[in-house]
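For homework, think about our next protein:
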Amino acid sequence: MDMLYAYGVTELYSLLAATAAQRLGLAPTCAHLDSTSCHVDGRYNSAEEPEAAVMHITRGSRRDHRPDLNQVMLDLIGEHQAGIPLLMQPLSGKSSDVQHVGQIVTEHITQLHPTSGTTSLVADSARYRAENLQKLAKTGSTWITRVPATVTEAQAALAHADPETMEPLGEGSRSHLLASTYGGVAQRWRLLYSAHRRPQAQRSVDKHWRTQSAAEAQALQQLCRIACAGAPDAQHALATFAHGLPATSLHECPIQPRPRYGKRGRPGHGTPPPPVGYHLTGALTSSLAAHAALVAPQRCCILATNARDEGLVPAPARLAG
């Protein structure tokens, strides 16, 4: 046990797994990095303060949607042919895979190259952060990942994507090559368009569209209940409301004066006329042009790699990986 602790169980497993893959005749050209969570039963140190170099098992199983279960995280690097895990590293239950990717890359990714012949690391978009890209650059590893749509530079590229000007890639796919230095790391972005993604893009946009439209309709109902002091005030409230409608637009929204009685029942003889309040009435219509503009970028995605030579990682290979 002392020898295992001194050598490192993660390092030992990586060596054994890579040797097994080599003897099985597997020559992976890429490895997939991902993390998973699993729950464990029993009493653990979840209620205690975490100690240094001790894995902290915490409550809150995200996979099973059970906040009462004990959870542990596991980082995996698997080869792409038979799915054999080349590296497994346990992490504390509330560890973020986004934050710990730098640690697993810095400490362990370099030992995969001489043993397994791995040339590229494939990771999901959660790892695409400036600090992680900088740590990967120090290892000299080649990586491939999808660029999150939340990146400002990616949003601009997706918004201006025109499939008609892209290079045909086969089977309804098109691509366009872009250069980027996101995170201070020189890399190639390939903007990919797929005609087969239309149903998926339509469902994704429709779900968000229904939620947004319902929220805007409810906001209009609340606005129509408010009595304005004058017609100019009502017109100003209407213009302000119409300016913040991304999913719908106003359709025939007139301003109607209504008397404001102080209490219920018929007013008595000699009662002065009630003050007049100005209310908005109308309906909303869905903006088909805005809806179509949201569907188009959803049919595209961006793959990034630091292999700036197209011959090292060609576009078809990135799609297959």
